[in-house]
Structures
1.
Amino acid sequence: MIENRYSKQILFQQIGPEGQEKISRSKVAVIGIGALGTVISSQLCRAGVGYLRLIDRDFVELSNLQRQILFDEEDVRSRLPKAVAAAGKLRAANSEITIEDVVTDVTARNVEQLISGVDIVLDGTDNLETRFLINDASLKTKKPWVYGGALGSHGMTMNVIPGKSACLRCLLPESPPPGAMQNCDTDGVLGAATGVVASLQAAEALKYLVGREPRPTLLIIDVWDGEFVELTVQPRPHCPACDKGEYEYLAGTRTSWTTALCGRNAVQIVPPKEHQIPLHELQERLSRVGRTSYNGFLLSFEAEGRELMLFPTGRAIIRGTTDEAEARTFYTRYVGL
Ligand SMILES: [Zn+2]
């Protein structure tokens, strides 16, 4: 066989020359180009996926370099958008494929367009709200997607194949209240954990693209304790998304509501539902990463040149920006959506 860039992959019998041909004709969207998304897009680009759409709303920061493998110090200095920085690195790694970079916040308004024309969607996001949006849009358009998430030393992944498998809302019927979930900005994450989860996601995508049966389970891993646990998730009867076809996140009835507050250099975020957040507990976590104060009514938190004022219902005002996408990123990072 003539040596080419894919020869080692073609020698792998489950792919072979036919599989490689299918991979080169495939189109994939990766949503979120961070710890998971950089590893996923790197592997799929090098594997020869013919078209990659890289979607991200954020720019590169120093604390990303520990695990977001496509970025370097120069990207931090030039504050490049992650999608743009990643696309540049990947075009240099494989000039034979098409790579599109899209710098945008994924919302109910644009998610269907963002996943249009691709064969499969890979989740590299860091929040449940966007994942539920991807879940709705993927079910509505009958497009498979691969869920992935990691925190600390553990992570999980699951394939959602419309009409065949359970969906994310079968696994998590309701999103937890803001502040209830741990996240990597207050609890940390190992690059080894995100790397393993992302590699599993990329392998599942390749399997799907060459026509193999995707894994029907939720796979939970811990790289510190060396654990792999596989669970079967049954489609949930009356699941609003995959059984009833009620796409509540896509309809915007469950998504948060963001408004720039004119002339105040601030943005207000209102979650879709009112909650009772234990602010003193959240203060304890946030005090590890910034300045906090709690006056019994609202929690204020300062970091990255911004101030967040959080009310117990989950409503927040973020000072120091008028950019709604930036404010959502800040809120997602420290409070969670
Ligand atoms: Zn479902």
2.
Amino acid sequence: MIEIYKDWNFPDTQYVRERTEKQQIVLHHTVSGDSVNGDMSWWLHTKERVATSYVISREGHLHKCFDDEYWAYHLGLSAPHFAKVGISYRPLDRYAIGIELDSWGALVQHTDGKFYPVTTQNGKVVPNLKCKAVENIYEYCSNQKYRGFQYFERYTTAQLATLGELLHHLMEKHHIAARYKSDIWNVTPRALAGWEGVFAHASYRQDKSDVHPQVELINLLKAL
Ligand SMILES: [Zn+2]
């Protein structure tokens, strides 16, 4: 059994209360600050059934939104995403368990030298100065940026420890085998064709940079 810090018990208007056989586990990050309450209230105020089953805070607390037997929309896929890899649309959200890591994700450096979450203005990526500067930085080499970004917030040790436990639990419960392959950091036909395994949101969509290939996360996935 896995220890749940808080069960938010989402109303069944926020997810689809239909049992489906799960084939995939998909990792996301929230692009948000320290308040899991903030993530939850945003989700609960939307009319769409967009959610993930779990959110893991920076302290490593596991928040449950709805039972992983059911499903919700979290991939944001349409026919063109599949057409790019030469396959037809399939409703993967139904078969994929979503997990969010609380994180600001991609960061850019402002002229004050500090790192801020990004926002887009007139197609240009600029620091979101309304947010607090982020201190826990993970840096990629300038010639090995991830999805165009050199800096990301670092997933915490506590967060990754909880993620490891959760992945073991879910893989056993749903009989999902996961053999790590480095293709998950790019759009991969394996993800879009619904192959069994643990994937990143970025495995399905070129415009996503969650989750980023932090070395500790890669090691965790290799050890599954
Ligand atoms: Zn995502």
